[in-house]
Each structure stands twice: as C-alpha cells, then as structure tokens.
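Researcher: Re-running this chain for the archive, since the previous output was lost when a drive failed. Same request as before.
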Amino acid sequence: MHENEGDELDQRLLELSETKKKLLQQIQERDQQLQERDQQIRENDQKIRDYYRLQQSTTFCEYIEGCHDTLCYTLPNQPNGRLEKIESTT
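Model: Regenerated structure tokens:
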C-alpha cells in the first residue's frame, strides 16, 4: 500500500512538473507578444508625433528683390516657437 502511494505521488509530481513547464512556456510566449506590442505602440506613437509636428507649422516663402532668391521659413503654430530658415533657392 505504501509503495502504491509513492507511485501515485511520483505520478502527481510528474503531472505538476509538466503543467509547470507548459505554464512557463505560455508566460514566455505572452511576454514576447507584449514586448512586440509595446514596440509597435512606440513606433506608432513616434509616427503620430512626427505627423503633428509637421501639422503645427506653416511654411512661408518670399521672393527677395535684387537678390533673385526665394527664402522659405517654417513658422511654428505654437507659442514660443522659433522661426527657422529651411530653404533658399536661387
């Protein structure tokens, strides 16, 4: 009878070990999925930030008499924005 109990315990221990392996594998797979999702979110967030940064500025171009030159500036549509020269064409 004691030998039978030992076999049952060994069998149960083996089952628990297999269950543990499966759960650890599922955790690793889920962790990988979450890391990929986080990376995709970061990439999409950067794309959105880039898009809105472009939308928050206005470009002005003016022809300068006598210089035969056109200067283009980007004026940010936000407080404390800086005026930046972005292009000069001849």
